[in-house]
Design goal:
With about 100 residues, the protein is mainly alpha-helical. It has 4 helices and no strands. The relative contact order is 0.14.
Length: about 100
Amino acid sequence: MSLNAYLILSTILFVIGMMGVIRRKNLLMLFFSTEIMLNAVNIGLAAISKFYGDLTGQMFAFFIIAIAASEVAIGLGLLILWYKRTGSIDLDVLQKMKG
């Protein structure tokens, strides 16, 4: 496969993830859409890295995976606390927080 095929796949996945971030009202689906976007960037970085024969892109992809894993762990912990407190994971409920 050529580099263009990988970059087109990466672009399509990134657009799908971005549409999910823009349109979703559920926090869990928002996390999934963010993960799709991060994985799209990883595919692009790994493909460019392989094309040029340099490991820099693959190293960046590795660090993005580590950051994404910590983001999901912290985000899901906060999501569980929010669900216990309000009974919903809807973003509209989150905007109506009381101090």
